[in-house]
Amino acid sequence: MNRMMNHIFGMLLLLAAPYSAKAEHGLLFVTVDNFPPYTWFHDGKPTGIDIDIINTLAERSGLPIGVELLPPKRVVRAVEIGSADGMFAAFKTPARDVFAYTIEAPLHFSTYQIFVKKGNEFPFKTIQDLDGKTIGKHRGFHISTEYSEAVANKRFQSVEVDAMEQNIRMLNKGRTDAFIGNDHEVAYTLKQLGILDEIVSLSVPVKTPQAAYLMISKASHIEDKEEVMQILFHTLRIMKADGTIQAIYAKYGNE
């Protein structure tokens, strides 16, 4: 481990040294505006796990990075047209590969699970196990092709909401049988509401855990873009290897 970290750190020094003198303007990275504990506004300021990671990335790399929180569709559009230099933390897809480069060092992994009231657990291994139920989920979030087809075929009802608190409220009122959510987001929200022990997750994730990345706009006008991307990649690797990212998670009650 020490040998690997020394190698990475040496490469980072070689990359970052010539760039620092050329960094005349900052990079602008955008992210979604309401996804605690990853990103949200607190007292009017961006906060969250991913915000802390990006701020630490800027400090460690020497790259001047600014962060702006936007609605999800505006985040993607800003990177498509190059009005933002990058976005985080985003899933890698063929559609996004068209307009963005992926920094292949994940900021986090997103695990989506089915949550139910404690005592109302049911066996779940495949989407077929949801037949006949009413399931809550975030509006516009794609679970899987199988899930979408099952909804279209009316095998179960999918109720879309705009915030995790709505999913929790509907479950508690009996309006849904379960809801689908990111495990860290749900745990954080339940803790804030003081009901962490009242809602539990089923053991099998509803989809394979996905890596969420920092992506750089192909349309942005970053000077020495390839060099900048290498600096970002190697710095994130060091932050993962030396425990910095884990410490940020611990700060928000997530290990």
Summarize the structure.
This protein is α/β, with parallel strands linked by helices and about 260 residues long.
**SSE order, one letter for each helix or strand:** HEEEEHEHEHEEEHEHEHEEHH
Number of strands: 13
Radius of gyration: 20 Å
- Biggest sheet overview: 5 strands, mixed
Low-confidence stretches: 4-24
Strand arrangement, major sheet: 5-1-6-13-7
CA(first)-CA(last) distance: 21 Å
Strand content: 25-35%
Overall helicity: 25-40%
| Silhouette | globular
Give the name of the CATH architecture of the largest domain: 3-Layer(aba) Sandwich
CATH topology-level name of the largest domain = D-Maltodextrin-Binding Protein, domain 2
Task: Write structural notes for this entry.
With 255 residues, this protein is of the alpha/beta class. Helices cover 39% and strands 27% of the residues. The protein folds into 2 domains: 2-108 and 211-251, 3-Layer(aba) Sandwich (D-Maltodextrin-Binding Protein, domain 2), CATH 3.40.190.10; 112-201, Periplasmic binding protein-like II (D-Maltodextrin-Binding Protein, domain 2, 3-Layer(aba) Sandwich). It has 9 helices and 13 strands. It has a 5-stranded mixed β-sheet, with helices on both faces. A 5-stranded mixed β-sheet has the order 10-9-11-8-12, covered by helices on one side. Strands 2-3-4 form a 3-stranded antiparallel β-sheet.
